[in-house]
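>> received
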Amino acid sequence: MWADSHCHVPWEGSDTSSFDAARAAGVGRFVTIGTGAETSRTAIEAAEANHDVWATVGLHPHDAKDGLDTLPDPRAHERVVAIGECGLDFFYSHSPHDTQREVFARQIAWAKELDLALVIHTRGAWDETFEVLDGEGVPERTIIHCFTGGPDEARKCLDRGAFISISGIVTFKKADDIRAAVAVTPLDRLLVETDAPFLTPVPHRGKQNEPAYVPLVGAAVAEAKGLEVSVIEAVTWENTAKVFKLPA
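>> returned
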């Protein structure tokens, strides 16, 4: 079956019914992501109510100015498997850069202290992201979510032991750099995600994204690597379990 390693279910104004549609499409594992206080709480609630859903607790760089003290304690919830998404976003800069760096560093330390995976968002800040990671020490289980770089950035992530998670962007016509990055990424470091409700893959562009579309992402990854889709399905299922320490 497929695993959606990164989605935002439920999103504002929605419920968890999209999990049912995804299960019918062959998706059997979901990691739903916290980006702040409220989304971390709803992620935990979704995970506690569904046997095949796990949660993260994190503070997105957009909201770094809100402070980590607003987040629920991940130690209080067995189904929390990661810290994040966290990182740096200098493309929009909704929080000051220094604040983003500080909050990112603290979440790296948190993941290491609690032996949880780390889910990273980076946009417009590759060099700075690597600088903070190198300064703090990369957690053993680190995921670069919604990877948007090319082969050079992929190699730098891989050199630091990170997993690379590919979203629906890989299906876009102009995403040659991402497809080239997929081609150089070893199978044992690949994940697939929807980032639902964002980044809807082809051929559903213009519609709201759903976890049910993760097989489309996997098919595009398979094409980029010149492999059968079933191979990507199997390895990303196993890699999701490994990086988040999910049951076999």
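>> The longest strand covers residues 80-89.
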